[in-house]
């Protein structure tokens, strides 16, 4: 690999200039250790992977404004820990919202619960499809292949002739955009997660 012998700081410098190979080298050098930390803290493979991917997507998107003069590994670890704290905060808030909604549902007559659940389920599916339709074409194609057709990253990469990391980046961005669009209807999404 072209950048195998470079220091972390050199990789960050190349990355800040838009060099994707240096960025990938930085990712490959650190992702496993960061994933291990995230997994120990979250106890969930997918959440840990999402947190690490979001960190590296942030680094790429903000590459021109991030200037690290000290230890890059330490910077990545601290940034990861901040994201984990944020993950706990969001998870805790959603848990409280679910509990409040569950209590409300338990106090509803059963026929009202079923009617409300059906209405909310339909509304959420419509919102989800609307959020997907607003994605850029290539991002939408990748998201649909992954979530509607259940293709693996490797299968999508092969089908579209794109690098696996590019697929991961697109999926992460698409998930963020869809999640953001659906946050307006969060209580509906919570309802579905309780009733399904």
UniProtKB/TrEMBL annotation:
GO terms for biological process: DNA-templated transcription initiation. Belongs to the sigma-70 factor family. ECF subfamily. One of its GO terms (molecular function) is DNA binding. This is DNA-directed RNA polymerase sigma-70 factor. Gene3D superfamilies: 1.10.1740.10, Winged helix-like DNA-binding domain superfamily/Winged helix DNA-binding domain. Residues 126-174 form the RNA polymerase sigma factor 70 region 4 type domain. GO terms for cellular component: DNA-directed RNA polymerase complex. It comes from the Bacteria. Residues 26-89 form the RNA polymerase sigma-70 region domain. Keywords: DNA-directed RNA polymerase, Sigma factor, Transcription, Transcription regulation. Pfam families: Sigma70_r2, Sigma70_r4_2. InterPro entries: RNA_pol_sigma-70-like, RNA_pol_sigma-70_dom, RNA_pol_sigma70_r2, RNA_pol_sigma70_r4_t2, RNA_pol_sigma_r2, RNA_pol_sigma_r3/r4-like, WH-like_DNA-bd_sf.
